[in-house]
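Re: weekly structure request thread

Next one in the queue (272 aa):
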Amino acid sequence: MKKTAGERMAEARRRADLTQLNVADELGVSYQAVSSWERDEYLPDTKNLIGLARLLGVSVNSLTEDSPYDFETKREIFNWEHQKTFVKTTASTLGMTNTLSALDFAVEAHKDQKRKNSDIPYISHPLMLACDCLSMGIREDCVIAACLLHDVVEDCGVTADQLPVDDETRRLVMLMTHPDEGNDRKAMLDKYFRGLASDPKAALIKCVDRYNNLTTMSWGLRRERQLRYIAETEQYVLPLVDVLKKRPEYNNVAWSLRYRIESMLDVYKRLI
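Done, posted below.
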């Protein structure tokens, strides 16, 4: 028997272990509104429907259309502690002293932080960058260490002098750190990406960082922010792929990153 939209919303909410009041608080609507949706008195408007789907980790279509397919989405694929073990084991084997120091420092600096709109420990993000670079054959100690530390100055109240790494790693971290935006976001981005483009290693870290953020954008960012993120990725990040080609050892990595980033952008454009 076909289920109504309200029944599908209620089932998805229960699977997400949320009450109607939880949903109402998250979406900024009344408890009565959520109850009315689930009783099929009326459908939520477009904004709330998109927000509800994001909150419940399902597609909009799965809430509004009866289908034999009932997909569930994942916000986290790898356990961050397993990622940490992989990075630590690899760094120990290869004698990557900066990476070993950066690993413990980053875990401690990000220990109370979560990824946007989730309960996922934030440390999973820098660890993913480090694991991704290692999986692509990058073995430069300063690059892997800077992946782990790339957000600590910007987000954790840490200064460059406090980083337990060498000067080259500190320089890469500072290139990855956004300056104060002020009132002119474009001017800030122009300056920020000029700095990244000045160093292929920094360009590499930023491309991996942006790809990882694109993979979580569907649930991590609001629609307006998603649109801006797509535009800024095309304008500022994709040109960094060409910077990687200045280093022959990064040619294969550049090809892989361009394919990944452009594929993600195309998928989002079609769905949005």
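The chain has a mean pLDDT of 92. Residues 223-244 form the longest helix (22 residues).
Next request, please.
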